[in-house]
Amino acid sequence: MKGIQFITNERGKKVAVVISLAEWGEEWEDFYDNLVAEERNGEPTVKWKDLKAGMNQESPASG
Fold first, then answer.
1. Which pTM was predicted?
2. Which residues of the chain have pLDDT under 70?
3. Which of 8, 14, 20, 35 lies at a CB distance of 3.0 to 4.6 Å from 3, suitable for a disulfide?
C-alpha cells in the first residue's frame, strides 16, 4: 500500500509500521484521537459549566 511500510523482526513478523503523514495524515489523526479517547475511558469527567467557570476565574479580566 502506498505510503505505508511495515517493519519486521528477524522472524518476519510485523512489529511496527511507518505511515506517510503526507499520504495518511488525516486518517492518522482520527486513529490517534480514538486511541487517546480509549485510553481516557473511565477517567473522571468534569461538567462543561464547571470547566468554563473555572477557566473564567483563572483568566484575567479583559479591558
1. 0.57
2. 59-63
3. 20
State how far the Cα of 4 lies from the Cα of 28, in Å rounded to an integer.
12
Instruction: Give the span between the Cα atoms of 23 and 25, in whole angstroms.
Output: 6
Report the b/e string of 42-57 with b at 16+ CB within 10 A.
eeeeeeeeeeeeeeee
Q: What is residue 57's predicted lDDT score, i.e. its pLDDT?
A: 82
Handedness of CA 20, 26, 31, 34 (dihedral sign): positive
Q: Please count the residues of the chain.
A: 63
Rg, Å, the chain Cα set = 20
